[in-house]
Structures are given as C-alpha cells and as structure tokens.
Specification:
The complex is a heterodimer. By secondary structure, chain A is mainly β. Helices cover 0% and strands 52% of the residues of chain A. Chain B is mainly beta. Chain B contains no helices and 12 strands. In chain B, the strands form 3 sheets. In chain B, strands 2, 5, 6, 10, 11 and 12 form a 6-stranded mixed sheet that branches. Chain B has a 4-stranded antiparallel sheet with strand order 3-9-8-7, with no helix packed on it. A two-stranded antiparallel ribbon of chain B has the order 1-4. The termini of chain B are far apart. Classes of the chains: A mainly beta, B mainly beta. Chain A binds chain B through residues 1, 32, 34, 36, 41-46, 49, 57, 93, 95, 100-103, 105-106, 108-111, and chain B through 30, 32, 34, 36, 43-44, 46, 49, 51-52, 90, 94-96, 99-107, 109.
Chain lengths: 117, 114
C-alpha cells in the first residue's frame, strides 16, 4: 500500500510554544488529508479535512486558530499546534487520500505523540 | 447524530476461539466501510474494506467482514484467533452523506489469552 510519513513521531514542548507536525505522502499525490486526534484508550476524532490548495474544513469544536492546517502541496500537509497547553497533549494522526471521491482508501501516518509540559 | 457504533468496548477470549465484532452506522446512501487494527504501540493498519460488490469481504490475517445494508452493519469476524490478534480494532465509514469524511467507531480492545 501507499506510504504516509508523519514527523516527528514524538515531541515534548513547553507550554505556550508552538509545534509543527508534518504529514507527507511518499509515493502518491494526496488530494485530501485528514488530521485526527486520539486520546488514550479512545477512538480517533477527526479534527479537520484539508484539500490541496484550499482552506481546511474543521470539525465542530476544533479551534481553527489553535490548530493551523496547511496543505500547500499534493504531498505535504502540516498541523501547527499554536500556544500549546498541557491539555493539547495527545496522539495526532494524519491520513491521506489520493482522490476527493469516495472510492479510494485513506492511508495513515505513524502518528505524533505530543506532550506539553 | 449520524455516527459509527461499535458495541463491544472490550473483548477477552482464548486462543482458537471465534471472534465477532459488531459495527453499525447511521448514514444513509452510499458508504464505504473499513476495519482497521492498531497493535500495541503501532499505527493503524487496514484489515479490509468494502466499496461495492460481494458484501462478504475477506481481509488480511484471516479476517472477514459482512456488509448487511438492511441492518446498516459491517461486522468483523475471525474463525480462530491467535494471541497475536491482541489489538484494538476500529470500524470506519466513509459516507457521501457525511461529506466523504472517514469517521471512526469507538474501537474495541481485544485481548486474546494464550
């Protein structure tokens, strides 16, 4: 299957700083990328959907000014957690899909464990 | 609200036992259905998927799932589990009615005792 690479895999940052997480599709062009958040022992919660070249669509309750998403190219999307606080500590996962339509599979990155101290 | 429901949060069984995990969704119209597995400390892996055609789908590692449209269900099955099947299993639905977003169920944590 296709490969999605997420970087970094782990990051620890101080409260009040910003952290950028990268998601790259290595062997295909990702028209659509999704960002998820997974709390311990819970399911993946969709945060936002981004289509290349357009603004991300955020799910209800997700602060767009806090979680900045950029999908500037067909192989790269970034999630920036701005002014991070301890409650932002979580496991963030990206996934990428080649087409906007339904009949295609999304591939997942390895995830990034963010710890805000 | 439209959602994806997994009925069992935790399942404990012995090796060689049969496994069935329930998944129901509430979206109307065309759906694509997926089962993912997350082994301890690892990222999500696709077990199987249904887009169209035969509603009985066979996946990797001996898993299969059956799409029953009338019941809005996509249950996962494995006839004989192994200790290595200990993992968390997620059902996911991609529905046109939901804007083609992949929505996950709450997950089922499966523990297989040796």
């Amino acid at each position: 299957g296709a490969v999605v690479s997420q970087h970094p895999s782990r990051v620890i940052c101080k409260s009040g700083t910003s952290v950028k997480i990268e998601c790259r599709s290595l062997d295909f062009q990702a028209t659509t990328m999704f960002w998820y958040r997974q709390f311990p022992k819970q399911s993946l919660m969709l945060m936002a959907t981004s289509n290349e070249g357009s603004k991300a669509t955020y799910e209800q309750g997700v602060e767009k000014d806090k979680f900045l998403i950029n999908h500037a190219s067909l192989t790269l999307s970034t999630l920036t957690v701005t002014s991070a606080h301890p409650e932002d500590s979580s496991f963030y996962i990206c996934s990428a899909r080649a087409f906007q339509g339904q009949n295609t599979e999304a591939f997942f990155g390895q995830g990034t464990r963010l710890t805000v101290v | 609200a439209q959602s994806v429901s997994q009925h069992n949060h935790h399942v404990i069984l012995s090796e060689a036992a049969s496994l069935e995990l329930g998944c129901n969704y509430s979206y109307g119209g065309t759906v694509n259905l997926f089962w993912y597995v997350q082994y301890p400390g690892q990222h999500l892996q696709l077990l199987l998927k249904y887009f169209s055609g035969d509603p009985l789908v066979k996946g990797i590692k001996g898993f299969e799932a059956e799409f029953i449209k009338s019941k809005f269900s996509f249950n996962l099955r494995k006839p004989s589990v192994q200790w290595s099947d200990t993992a968390e299993y997620f059902c996911a639905v991609n529905a046109k009615a939901a804007g083609n977003k992949l929505t996950f169920g709450g997950g089922t944590r499966v523990l297989v005792k040796p």
